[in-house]
Amino acid sequence: MVKVAVGQMTSTSSKLQNYQVCARLAKEAREAGASFLALPECFNFIGEHWREAVEAAEPLTGPSMNRYCSLAREHGMWLSLGGFQESVPPEPVSPARHTASTEEAQESRQPVPAAESHRSKVFNTHVVISENGDIRAAYRKIHLFDVDIPGGPVLMESRYTQAGREMSVCDDSPAGSLGLSTCYDLRFPEMYTCLGMASQVVLVPSAFTVPTGEAHWETLLRARAIETQAYVIASAQVGQHNEKRASYGHSLIVDPWGKVLADAGSEESPCIRTVEIDLPKVDEVRRGMPIQEHRRAAGPLFAQQLLGDFADLRQPAL
Length: 318
Ligand SMILES: O=C(O)CNC(=O)[C@H](CS)NC(=O)CCC(=O)C(=O)O
Prior knowledge:
Elements: E1 2-9, H1 15-31, E2 36-39, H2 50-56, H3 63-75, E3 78-87, H4 95-108, H5 116-119, E4 122-129, E5 135-140, E6 146-148, E7 154-156, E8 169-173, E9 176-180, H6 189-198, E10 201-203, H7 210-228, E11 231-234, E12 236-240, E13 246-248, E14 252-254, E15 260-263, E16 271-277, H8 280-288, H9 291-294, H10 298-307
Parallel strand pairs: 1-2, 1-12, 2-3, 9-10, 10-11
Antiparallel strand pairs: 1-16, 3-4, 4-5, 6-7, 8-9, 11-14, 12-13, 14-15
């Protein structure tokens, strides 16, 4: 048995205040005997305007992440930090282009342009830090939330976010092997089918909107737990962040049979919930109903049968 904690908070645009909240939650989690704490998407920053996210971006080696690495080390605790605004490194410039642009710059006496377009976007990165303070996994959110929510706000994540292209698993945490995902990814079950093959615990740090959270959050999380036969740990933002933005809350931990073990509800003061997870239960559920073994090469095969050989299958962004 290993005790894990899920944290719930209301981030603002003050990185320092957000850090103080996270540090308090980490201390509480440690005192409750947890060796792992999951904190939600935007744990470090949530702004009012998308431009602020770009301005807030830092590399994984920057001051914010250094602080969280020290926090993990201080408490000897693993941290899952969903949704860090990571600056997109400039693309390596090919020698030929480099020479040309340098010459051009010298001619016009202008500074060499430094991959400006890449600076204007961030990655939405979910980071896992070990108890030694080492970054053990970094997953850059693949599915971007460009949605005009009925009865809610319009969010255009791709305006300021560059989509990731790779999935990520961290296979040696005290809470078992971890499959990393973030928020809107939750609506793309094929991703979890893959993560489930490689992990015992699936992480879904989020900042779900209120209307979509009410309608879908718990159902989707329980479905992902049932389909993957893995624990699901979903940390969530809650409440009003600023005039424009509010989140649904209900940080959940779900077991591999789909049972909700903890639910932080819509509690607005920062809080944690802790649960003892029983990793052998993952194998037990998988042995009892071996759906991985029963899986057929269903996706491409069925789509072809249904739509014909020349099916215009939309290619995922992977
Ligand atoms: O923009 C940021 O600051 C960080 N990113 C987020 O909060 C993202 C994109 S706006 N939110 C979601 O994916 C909500 C998904 C959701 O609510 C649903 O699927 O229903």
